[in-house]
Amino acid sequence: xxxxxxxxxxxxxxxxxxxxxxxxxxxxxxxxxxxxxxxxxxxxxxxxxxxxxxxxxxxxxxxxxxxxxxxxxxxxxxxxxxxxxxxxxxxxxxxxxxxxxxxxxxxxxxxxxxxxxxxxxxxxxxxxxxxxxxxxxxxxxxxxxxxxxxxxxxxxxxxxxxxxxxxxxxxxxxxxxxxxxxxxxxxxxxxxxxxxxxxxxxxxxxxxxxxxxxxxxxxxxxxxxxxxxxxxxxxxxxxxxxxxxxxxxxxxxxxxxxxxxxxxxxxxxxxxxxxxxxxxxxxxxxxxxxxxxxxxxxxxxxxxxxxxxxxxxxxxxxxxxxxxxxxxxxxxxxxxxxxxxxxxxxxxxxxxxxxxxxxxxxxxxxxxxxxxxxxxxxxxxxxxxxxxxxxxxxxxxxxxxxxxxxxxxxxxxxxxxxxxxxxxxxxxxxxxxxxxxxxxxxxxxxxxxxxxxxxxxxxxxxxxxxxxxxxxxxxxx
Length: 477
Description:
Blueprint: H1 3-27, E1 33-34, E2 53-55, E3 58-60, E4 66-67, E5 70-74, H2 90-98, E6 103-108, H3 110-113, H4 122-137, E7 141-146, H5 187-198, H6 201-217, E8 223-227, H7 241-259, E9 266-269, E10 284-285, E11 289-291, H8 310-325, E12 331-335, H9 344-358, E13 361-364, H10 385-391, E14 395-399, E15 403-405, E16 414-419, E17 428-431, E18 440-443, E19 447-453, E20 458-463, E21 469-475
Parallel strand pairs: 1-10, 5-6, 5-13, 6-7, 7-8, 8-9, 9-11, 12-13
Antiparallel strand pairs: 2-3, 4-14, 14-17, 15-16, 16-21, 17-20, 18-21, 19-20
Helix pairs in contact: 6-7, 8-9
């Protein structure tokens, strides 16, 4: 009997020791990761969609103008066996362009790129290329997103990894089917994903798939860049340990592998998505890195939207700090709200106010879906113009040095620009929705020329050199 307390104490000591080691590992300082990339080899590219790069913490074009990428997610090329996605047609591209947007985050599937281990499917690659070409023809950049939905693989009913990148004999059981994140708790899903992060062989195969994509698009300026892994989550690896020792080193290896064949594009890197947890950032020294974390606090993740913009603003500020720690611009790769809920419009307005205040781009989840989150329904028959007004607020697509914008207003059609005396003498390009706002009226004394194209949703303005002024844009009454 006397030995039992001793065993109990030993177990407690052992558990505390493990906890202490994990805490020490989580908070121990780690070094900066360095990526070696060859020099860019830029082709002539598309004159309507110039090459993008990162400089001074901003996404810029060849003229040095700050470019805001604002648009939508599209899941048409992603396999959801349990929930087949809506399609994508030229009318989608036309509508997004006319509404003033300039980017589509296009989900692609590792499972369809490499259905047989070691073999890239050329037909699926050409499907991607056809969609990219169509979107580019309508002035829309494309961010290619290697999309994983919580659930890991189409083998389990969701998008992501090929069927061969799963573990045998592990049951696929969703313990919480009433929640969108429930599939991530399936033993089959989380054991396979954990293996991916702990081992190197599946990561090497994903790098193979990404290199095939990069080889196909390395000379396409209309591809803004590559979103390397959608919504990584740490469990069962403890947060902070996951980011420091698994996620950011994975990004380092992937950037080097993809950049070896394509040093020309941006790399979009996401933090963890696990309720309201922050991401522990381990800086990466590499050019053209963009932080592309998502915001679902208030819609899918508590604290849920009550009409108070404060918690949402706090979350935007936190994500901005994480981007700053990475020395990268922040682009909101996904955010959205169930449009059938009464607070959806107010939520979108608050989120876009935060984005305007931070001068960042975003992609709404998503363009086409029936009936909850999309602007165009799955059949293509209905476009939700009422809600589109909230998203299609005027914004600076391309801002020369010395030109900044305030908050846009998509309901009344308003945008104010401040032009400094030492501004660069390059065209100012504004996204203005001809679908919901009509033609813009420009009020300013310093305008040298203006050109409005309703078919592209673009207003282009040249300002007199060495002139400071304020430009007021409004919709026609």
